[in-house]
Known about the structure:
The chain is an alpha+beta fold. It has helices spanning 42-58, 104-107, 123-127, 129-137, 207-251, and strands at residues 2-10, 13-21, 65-68, 73-74, 83-84, 88-92, 102-103, 113-117, 141-145, 156-162, 165-168, 177-179, 184-189, 192-197, 202-203.
Amino acid sequence: MADKEVIEETGSDISTSRIRYAPTNGAIIYPESDGKPMAETELHRDALINALIILIEAFKDKPDVCVSGNMMMYYVEGDPKKSISPDVFVSFGIGKKLRRTYRVWEEGKPPDFVLEFSSEKTHRTDQNEKKLLYASIGVQEYFLYDPERQYLPTPLMGFRLVDGEYVPIPAGTDGSVMSVTLNLELRLRGNILGFYDTVSLKWLETPADTAAARADQEAARADQETEIRKQAEAEAARLREELERLKAQSAS
């Protein structure tokens, strides 16, 4: 059996742990999991899943866009120790397919966009070691979001790669940060992270949210039609009464 070292976040430090694996026919094994849970808390898990579903829906009709997350990414061929697992990432120009891992040398490029959800245990490595790593492998934009809104300098932060180093993306007065790679604006939407299309001037939604909104609209339309029908029936009844009154007056 051989050992594999993977990055493991512990407080403000990056330490290493070992995952055991058995090589087959001398081939290098790139494990599909680092053995860690998807997210630190249910709040982080829900925020991660919500963002992932929204972005998958946003790019579902773009065959050359890969949207994924919580996937092992290997960035040095032949060295499975060089790995990291982005919470959410988007890569353009590589196509959709079922991937078990993301190997930069096979895809021909790193992701264009990475989003990490910071927590008490990860916020230091998110702002330091991970930031340096993503810059070194060429990730064009790196975003951080703090669902608990207490560990980062601001709940939402964005960085863009310039000459091999990340520079902060200026935030709007409402805390929104524009992603050029996604052509979307990341915004704080109540208690969640939202994605806003500055062209259509609409929030991006999950399919479930879209279906719920459509159901609400249909229910509202049905209520409106019911009210219109009631008003029409009432008016028809009034006219009948008026007609009967006029008939009675003519007969007398």
